[in-house]
Amino acid sequence: MNSIRYNLKQAFLQVVRNRAMSLASVFSIMAMLLILGVSFVTVVNIGVAMEKAKEGYDTVLIHLEDDTAEWQVENIIDTLRSMQEVQEATFLPKDDALEQWKTEWGNYGYLLDSLPKNPLPDGVVVKLSDLVGADKVVRRATNFNGVLEVKYYRDTVEKLMKVTNFIQMAALVIMGFLIIISVVVVSNTIKLTVFARAEEINIMKYIGATNWFIRGPFLVEGVIIGLISASLSVGVISLVYYKVIELVQSDITNMFKFRLVPMEFMSYNLIWIFIALGVSIGACGSIISMRRFLDT
Amino acid sequence: MIRFTNVTKHYKTNIGLDNVSIEIERGDFVFLVGASGAGKSTLIKLILKEIDADSGSIMVNGTEVTTLSNRLVPKLRRSIGIVFQDFRLLPRMTVFENVAFAMEIVHARPRAIRRQVPQVLSLVGISDKAYKYPDELSAGEQQRVAIARAIVNNPTFLMADEPTGNLDPETAWEIMRLLEQINIRGTTILMVTHAKDIVDRMGKRVIAIDNGKIIRDNIGTYAIGDSYEA
């Protein structure tokens, strides 16, 4: 109990009395967390945008010949429903399809009223549970009797999946690099602060302080600096992100038909990630950089 | 209290100590004199286990130092009060905190710290400087703080490495009177010094060391014919 109080007190005193160095450490941890935060926010939004984009391509539309019997249609639907790759298969009568078409055309929908007869065939709408299984479903659907054609944007979907995977991989690699670089930068900064106090550490050892007794306040100091950096970084990122949402949300919704991930969600996740990263970098930085002064 | 038996420590290029045997009894006040490089620092470093002896036995407060594990070194150092020529105060701590630090490392209770630190500061005569930082004090005052830190845990043995080396003669004598008082209270003192006048006037036991060997061990003066002055 005494030692917890001692460590906390000494750590706070060190942070305050060593303002310049504490500030330098806070800034370098913040710089790293901010870069990481920006990457995180970007990757999450791209991920959401990609999911949204995929949604348009997770359906296979089967057009049926006009004379397909009802039992045949039921057979097709039942068979498809039994497939693992299929989430849902529903019959779409041609009149409903025309109605949908009209709705999509919006204000110009009335133009379709002038058609002499409904040009659309009856159909079955197949919602895929996973894009990867699309091919199998398409192949199966083509083989049914009474099927006119199977519509599926295979190339587009494949490209989309490739792009998504590439972006996610690239983001992971970049974030990994960033973490490594920043750990080096931060531990060097902390090393400087410890180096400045090498003499103090030496004196403490002469008086008979154990290594852990000397390390304690430095460790807590690292944790405090990590916490401060994490909180400030979450604040800055949230504020900037909030402003960005305010500025571009409506444009993005109009252009790409998707909404940016809400700030609350981002902030909530970033707080935990940043605190974990900030605290561990602060603590590890302290311990690593003190090692050589506590050899004996 | 302190017993060196046939202790030898050789460095790569020179001799630190050569087959040295010394015994210092409880309550003694002993001066350790000799030229620079004679082996005084080696002796102090061996007592603190800052370096290891090549051979021989070193007993400090009943503990065999030569075989002591690194883990127990802090405990050994806590049982010895140490005062240095350059004071070695913690610059970011106040006078009070510097002295309290020595109690904190032995896990003293806050109440004991609040009671004992002012007592010791008053004993060394710097009660009014408790909340100053070391760089706001004179050299003599800084050495008093160092002495307060060395004795606050009531060690039975105090080691002073040229404690008057950085002080003017008058302040040096004040520090000597303080050390004498501490000795009278029962603390064994081993003081390394070059100050001939101090050694001569104190009339305590003097161990003279030269080229790693004890060349004289008696009560009296610094050296016959001043041959060991630095």
Q: Describe it for me?
A:
The complex is a heterodimer of chains A (296) and B (230). With 296 residues, chain A is of the alpha+beta class. Chain A has two domains: 2-54 and 159-294, no CATH class; 58-152, Alpha-Beta Plaits. In chain A, 72% of the residues lie in helices and 8% in strands. Chain A is built from nine helices and four strands. Chain A has helices at residues 2-17, 19-55, 70-81, 94-105, 134-142, 154-196, 198-207, 211-256, 263-290; strands spanning 59-64, 86-92, 123-128, 147-151. In chain A, α6 crosses α9. The longest helix of chain A is centred in the last third of the chain and has 46 residues, at 211-256. The two termini of chain A are 27 Å apart. With 230 residues, chain B is an alpha/beta fold. Chain B has two domains: 1-32 and 39-78 and 203-230, P-loop containing nucleotide triphosphate hydrolases (Rossmann fold), CATH 3.40.50; 83-184, 3-Layer(aba) Sandwich (Rossmann fold). Chain B has seven helices and ten strands. Chain B has helices at residues 40-47, 73-78, 95-104, 110-123, 139-151, 169-184, 196-202; strands at 2-10, 15-24, 29-33, 55-60, 63-64, 80-84, 157-161, 188-192, 205-210, 213-219. In chain B, the strands form two sheets. Chain B has a six-stranded mixed β-sheet with strand order 6-7-8-3-9-10, with helices on both faces. In chain B, a hairpin with a 2-residue loop joins β4 and β5 (63-64). In chain B, α5 (139-151) packs parallel to α6. In chain B, 43% of the residues are buried.
